[in-house]
Design a protein that fits this description.
The chain has 5 helices and 13 strands.
Length: 199
């Protein structure tokens, strides 16, 4: 995987630090107050506390997945402003960072891994605008189509009478293709069972 350059950033002047909470397991909680989303806590390992503490952290929520991330406004070396994500400070210089458990505020090293954009996309949460309730399943010509991404190309898995049949086809293909996190596969299994199917 090719590394990307990480610009040197510094906190904005007059930044007030966030409140912190000591957590078990040598971890620290950074309290983030958001007028729109309420109070949240971003978790980091104590070893990474010094890297994140100078910044004033806010909450960034992706609209399609409702995943929350900690971000701060900062300045680059040339003086221009930028936003920096907490997990990018902890794992710098890589293409993308994946939160293994899908929790964008759990920024502990055991929950972060460097990945390609393809792997990160595969392990993203189910979109909120997904109308079938299953990953890889969409409505098509009065039926339900299953498809999966393999090496950047969509592979057609067939059209089915029910979304449940299409979801089971996607799960079988995802297990064969590989590259999906255990969390994603388990979410699909749970959705299938909840809809009356079997694993």
């Amino acid at each position: 995987m090719e590394e990307t350059a990480t610009p040197t950033i510094r906190p904005l002047e007059k930044s007030q630090p966030n409140d912190v909470i000591a957590l078990p397991g040598n971890r620290v909680g950074i309290v983030i107050d958001s007028s729109k989303y309420g109070q949240h806590v971003a978790v980091v390992d104590a070893a990474d506390y010094q890297a994140v503490t100078p910044h004033r952290w806010g909450l960034l929520v992706q609209t399609h997945s409702h995943t929350a991330y900690a971000y701060a406004n900062a300045r680059r070396e040339d003086g221009t402003r930028t936003k920096v994500l907490m997990h990018r400070l902890i794992v710098p210089g890589v293409e993308q960072v994946d939160h293994i458990d899908g929790d964008g505020l759990r920024n502990t090293r055991d929950n972060l891994r460097a990945v390609t954009a393809t792997v990160n996309q595969r392990n993203s949460r189910l979109r909120s605008d997904n109308s079938t309730g299953f990953r890889g399943v969409s409505r098509s010509r009065g039926r339900f189509m299953a498809q999966i991404s393999v090496n950047g190309a969509m592979r057609y898995l067939g059209r089915y009478d029910t979304p449940l049949e299409a979801a089971q086809a996607w799960l079988t293909a995802a297990e064969d293709v590989g590259g999906y996190s255990d969390r994603v596969l388990e979410e699909q299994r749970v959705a299938i069972v909840a809809a009356g199917g079997s694993e």
